[in-house]
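WARN no homologs supplied; continuing
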Amino acid sequence: MKLIFKIARTELRNLFYSPVAWFLFVAFLVQCAYFYCRVVQEFTKWQSLMLENSPDFEGFNRSLTQLVFLNGEGIYSSAINNLYLFLPLLTMGIISREMNNGTIKLLYSSPVKTKNIVFGKYLALLIYNLMLIAVIGIFMITGMLNIQNVDTGMVLSATLGFFLITCAFGAIGIFMSSLSTYQIVSAIATFLVIFILNRIGGLWQQYDLVRDLTWFLAMGNRASKMIVGLITTADVIYYLLITGMFLTFTVLKLKGTREFLPWYRKALRYVLTIAVVLFVGYISSRPGMIGYWDTTRDNLLTIHPNTQKVLNDFEKGEPLEVTLYSNLLDNSYGKTSPAARNDYMWTLWERYLRFKPDIKFRYVYYYDVVDGDSSLFRRYPKKTLKEIAAIEAEGKEADLSRFKTPEEIRKMADLQPEDMRAVMELKYKGRTTWLRTFPDTDFWPHEIQVSAAFKRLQVEEMPKVLYTTGNLERDIFKMGEREYYSHAFSKITRTSLINVGFDADTISPDFRDIPAGISCLILADPKTRMSPLKEERIKKYLDQGGNAFILGEPGKQEMLNPLLSHLGTALDNGSLVYVSKHEVPNVLPTYFTSDLYFMSDAQGMPKLRARLNNPKYKDTVREVMHGAAAVQATSETSYTYRPLLLTREGTFNKAGRLVVDSTAPGFNPAEGDVKKTPFTVMARLTRDLANKQQRIIIAGDADCLSRLRGGVKPINISFFSWLDTNRFPVYTPMPDPADQLFTISGKAAKTQSFFFIWILPALLLLLGIVILVRRKRK
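OK structure emitted
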């Protein structure tokens, strides 16, 4: 070890007695200072302006730790992206210099082992890398002072990732330096190897034999998890293996110059080294063999505890099988093709494999179209489906022979209801369910959809929502803009009921009783009067404690009021009106009540609950209703009545017929118009029974669940969740970031920026010049 340290000390002297190391050090400092100070200066400027002019300003509503350090142009991301410009220039002469000067022969003749020479020089590089870490550490400490409640774990994880990358780059550089006496050649070779290792993960991914090999060797995305705060043993071991492999190559190369052995024996050493690295790397990256450490303050990179609980409900030893069906003729084939398999595995499933490593994956590739779909035949006239598939396969560089024909795939699975889109079939203990992809930018399902699919495999029966029929109610099987297909049955909508854990169906109470075990009954905008039998069966269902969602429309109050009177409520006759210069008068700005905040953990609700007692937030969340009748309590009952949506001041109830495409309607008490503040547009009823709480929602606007009015909004899912006593969906709420404010002003940040970008590098440059001049004089 003493020899290693002596060699390292000598190498450090050589490094810092040359201008290259000083130049790179100063350039790295300027780069880090620029990317850090630019973000801090810009955002502190706006923070100062907001604090001076907006008393309600509480922060940027985002993590400033991520913004300053980890985003695409943050200090860590920028340092890593530009690191390949620094280290090859530093390492290019570390061995080749000894060869050029002839000192390598002195080292060979000394009682120093070859590995000690390599390790000593590499130790010098590690110390230099630690000095680069110290530069980043300056800004890390400054960030802790500049940012309120900085996420320290996230920053330390990124620092580890940066250090491991520098270690790997240094080992590559040493090996390349040992291959040539020309330093420029060594630098170019180092650039080339780093480039190949960064890009190899995207090569030959369509071939089964080499897919995992090239993906493992890829360095490009290995540090991405550590940079954002997730440390995995697979990534750490990868960098240690790459570092060890190139250091071993260097030792073998230097030994080989002194040994007279056949070329194949020398080559065998390299092959064995590569084989050991690949074997250890493969084993260490298998599901179940990977350890994880989420260093973020709120475990942002780990699936939610609610999702973890769902995974823990699977029986130990019972495998879960996931089959991905990929259609060559689907527009999303590029995301599900064999070339994208590793991306599919590690982007979508790694978070779940962490807690259930025995998930088995299968892949089925096919080509087919939905019955009646002629779009492809119009695009390729006079072609058969097989000929069209051959053309598409050629364009997408796919082997058509690996794709199942329409006849074969239809024997395996019925994909017609899924529109032949990319879909996953989950199997567990004889049960199956579908997990869908979606035509949006995210494409893959989120935690809420994955958890719902898992629960379908675990429970005997999912909560069922029944929609009444028989009186021209809103239809869940029609795709019209006023209908309910979008929020209930749409397979391509993330937050439709069937994708978040509910089953939906229709029922005609004229012909059968309403079953007692359902989640809730939906009675939406009947346009004809209900029969006495239907009304009696609905009343019976409600009297027995059934949950319900009753929605009406202005002008049709008499269709629901006979039933609502049984609940001590009614829809007021007339239409609610709010006159403004921007909208038609039946477009109503309404506002949430605090009761709505506590209905579920839907997106945004925990945050709204936290703000209830904050005097800065005097107003509530706005919700626009399009054509609504007022809901009111008419008599005392055993139900507790609580408003959910209230109108704003200036709203009045217009009696008679409302004309919206003419002059603005005026308030006329003589005609029966009523003005009060506020009107209730939606209310909830609760009643405590022996073993449950009965829950009912009454709304004066049935359009709020339609596709036209955004029926798949998170707030609407919250209604169904509350009616199901919050069993579903499996919500995954995350806390707001605590690091939303800077602790310095814009002026202070400007001064700080000048110091870090100009003063500190100048001082460091001056120090380097002094040392180099004094060295030259000696």
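The radius of gyration is 34 Å.
OK
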